[in-house]
TrEMBL record:
<dbReference type="GO" id="GO:0045429">
    <property type="term" value="P:positive regulation of nitric oxide biosynthetic process"/>
</dbReference>
<keyword id="KW-0378">Hydrolase</keyword>
<dbReference type="GO" id="GO:0016403">
    <property type="term" value="F:dimethylargininase activity"/>
</dbReference>
<dbReference type="InterPro" id="IPR033199">
    <property type="entry name" value="DDAH-like"/>
</dbReference>
<dbReference type="GO" id="GO:0016597">
    <property type="term" value="F:amino acid binding"/>
</dbReference>
<dbReference type="Pfam" id="PF19420">
    <property type="entry name" value="DDAH_eukar"/>
</dbReference>
<dbReference type="GO" id="GO:0006525">
    <property type="term" value="P:arginine metabolic process"/>
</dbReference>
<comment type="similarity">
    <text>Belongs to the DDAH family.</text>
</comment>
<feature type="active site" description="Nucleophile">
    <location>
        <position position="246"/>
    </location>
</feature>
<dbReference type="GO" id="GO:0000052">
    <property type="term" value="P:citrulline metabolic process"/>
</dbReference>
<protein>
    <submittedName>
        <fullName>Dimethylargininase</fullName>
    </submittedName>
</protein>
<feature type="active site" description="Proton donor">
    <location>
        <position position="159"/>
    </location>
</feature>
Length: 253
């Protein structure tokens, strides 16, 4: 497995913020936390590639938003924030080594953080960053490959995966107050407590799930549900509105 990541930009303090108040951000600490995150991926068998091509762009570490990577194809996104659209060209050559490419075109917008894949279904958050045109383009691109695309209304957070992620193909971790849960009927849903709402963004790994450090109740809930849990500190990156899924594009061989 390949994990495509990007070096933390020295301009990360100028990142886009939607639901968080801007705070002072320690670049060295953010880079140490990102390195620890990469080390977790390596321990789980991922070969980590760290790009630097977009280092001048404040949000470039959050590579998830630039593409949706599936077994058959990678779809280059068109981020909803205009300041982030330049990132996509820098990511293209890295993905082209592993997948045929397609791309979302104007007026569509699509952030990878709004796309949750569970099996052959992609749930797409309709948010401030992703519009219906972007979702419909994704549906058309993926239809020949047998994927279903289902819209989900997002109303309380930045991206769909801020509020819901998959621990396995049958279990979701969610903070339901931020999204419409109706499209997720049939799943087991583990609800994070209100004071740990940001813990809904977990990263599913080969043998365990990764939870952001500091969310003890969510960690305990997942262990009680039968999951092996690891934690990593991303407290500095969270000041830039990050979650665990944001900082990598995971590519199967």
């Amino acid at each position: 497995m390949i994990a495509i990541t990007h070096r933390v930009s020295p301009n990360i303090h100028q990142c886009e913020l939607t639901h968080r108040v801007r705070e002072p951000l320690d670049l060295d600490r953010a880079r140490r936390q990102h390195a620890a995150y990469q080390d977790v991926l390596r321990r789980h068998g991922f070969s980590v590639e760290e790009l630097t091509v977009n280092e001048h762009l404040p949000d470039s570490v959050f590579v998830e938003d630039t593409a949706v990577v599936l077994d058959e194809i990678a779809v280059l996104c068109r981020p909803g924030a205009p300041s982030r659209r330049e990132e996509v060209a820098g990511i293209r050559p890295a993905l082209a080594r592993y997948r045929p490419l397609a791309a979302i075109q104007a007026p569509g917008t699509l952030d990878g953080g709004d796309v949750l894949r569970v099996g052959k279904t992609l749930f797409v958050g309709l948010s401030l960053r992703t519009n219906r045109d972007g979702m419909e383009q994704l549906r058309a691109i993926l239809a020949p490959h047998g994927y279903q695309v289902k819209p989900v209304q997002v109303h309380g957070c930045l991206h769909l995966k801020t509020a819901v992620t998959a621990a396995d193909d049958h279990t979701l971790v969610a903070y339901p107050a931020w999204i419409d849960m109706e499209p997720f009927g049939g799943f087991r849903v583990l609800e994070v407590p209100e004071e740990e709402a940001e813990a809904a963004n977990i990263l599913r790994l080969h043998r365990s799930v990764l939870v952001a450090q500091g969310f003890a109740r969510t960690e305990r809930m997942l262990r009680q549900a039968g999951f092996s849990v690891e934690t990593v500190d991303i407290s500095e990156l969270r000041k830039a509105e990050a979650g665990l899924t944001c900082s990598s594009l995971l590519v199967s061989p």
